[in-house]
Amino acid sequence: MQSAPRTAAQGHRVRLEPRSDVLPSNGSGEVRLAALAEHDAHRIRALNTQIEQAIAIRQRNQSGQFSTSVKFSVNAGPGLYIIQLTLGTPPQTFPLIMDTGSQLIWMQCQPCQFCVSQNATLFSPSSSSSYATESCSSTACASLPRQCSQSNTCQYSYSYASQASTQGQLGTETLTLLSPEGSTSAFPGLVFGCGLNNHGEYGGAAGLVGMGQSSLSLPSQLSSVLGGKKFSYCLLSHATLPSSSSANPSSLVIGEPAAESASRMQFTPIVVNPAVVASLYYIDVLGFSVNNVRLNIAASTFSIQADGRGGIILDSGTTYTYLPSAAFSVIQQAFDTFVKLPRYSNHPYLPLCYSVQEGQETTAIPPFTVHLQGMDLAVPLDNYFTKVDEQGTYCLAIIPSSGGLQIIGNMLHQHYDVLYDLDNSRIGFLPEAC
């Protein structure tokens, strides 16, 4: 990507808006939390399906290693937050889903063979003087599942294994960024997919912004012009959405300013899953504590297995936390030991719930700590117990899973400034009010 003149402090800050199709603005807290659980289920199925496909292909390789001629992509179903990006000449702004579980930037384009409904005019490449197609021999084209047209234009195909997909041509375009002071900077050469045949549910968004670790993700492409390959976000509590989101929105920062609080952060390394080439952010979870008592759960419970299964990721696009049933049982037993409140056993998807009288929350529910490689994350109460109805039912925001990928969802790290420092392969956490 070509660079524009910049200062070391230049970066890009945008609002993160919750998807209206997943979080209805007029829904009660109970309705919103149920909708998020349904979204989680689709996303997790998509992730596990593609991981299993990648592992199966690897196992069929006689050497047991990846063939250098094979490319794998592991992509979740579309995420939960929408950002605004401005592309083209003349510039036009489009709502796009921000997704830490994906690598490609793409948007719907004219002439669209099949496009889903979106809350913006379709991007017209022919109307932009700065649009250009990528050739089949380009480095960007080689990094994606693709075909070559008769005119040597790179034709990409990208699937999310959740009945969502995009096919079209890979191109480059000028990205315009707005600084916090109101000035604009134009950056030519952003590589993105111009989707001409698209399927799925995107909540009115025009496409998707991959925030993964690949060379085509937004933080990777902007690294040379914004001072480094890094980004941070701070997410609002689901308990306050959507009423407070317009006044005090969640935010995303890309570039060097994302690390302005790094000196005050705790860090844990990004872990590589050697069996699956992915954009996912694996982290090393060592265990948990309830009421400052370390639980007897083997650290290997959360480790990546030799075949690539297992492991645990940090994911902005999943709401709840998902752990193996055996680990969940130990956590549940620990809370039952310390919490002297009536159990509520009729919740449809959250197994551990208590009936709490108003004002009892902070005294009756003990502290909870996530032990990560290099740091301990003592999360606030709202991050691990959530109020699910108006009768005072509070439930642990952790769901047991029968196998597959484990996930630290966004509820567990809400109200933290979370820094994805890809330059140093680490993730930082700092408690913030967002």
Automatic annotation (TrEMBL):
What would you give as a GO molecular function for this chain, any one?
Answer: aspartic-type endopeptidase activity
Q: Where is this region: Disordered?
A: 1-22
Q: Which Pfam families match?
A: TAXi_C, TAXi_N
Q: Where is the Peptidase A1 domain?
A: 81-430
Q: Which GO terms describe its biological process?
A: proteolysis
What InterPro entries is this protein classified in?
Aspartic_peptidase_A1, Aspartic_peptidase_AS, Pepsin-like_plant, PEPTIDASE_A1, Peptidase_aspartic_dom_sf, Plant_Aspart_Prot_A1, TAXi_C, TAXi_N
Q: What domain of life does the native source organism fall in?
A: Eukaryota
- What SUPFAM superfamilies does this protein map onto? Acid proteases (SSF50630)
Q: Which UniProt keywords apply?
A: Aspartyl protease, Glycoprotein, Hydrolase, Protease
The active-site annotation reads 99, 315
The record's family statement is: Belongs to the peptidase A1 family.
What this protein is called in its record is Peptidase A1 domain-containing protein
Q: List the source organism.
A: Ceratopteris richardii (Triangle waterfern)
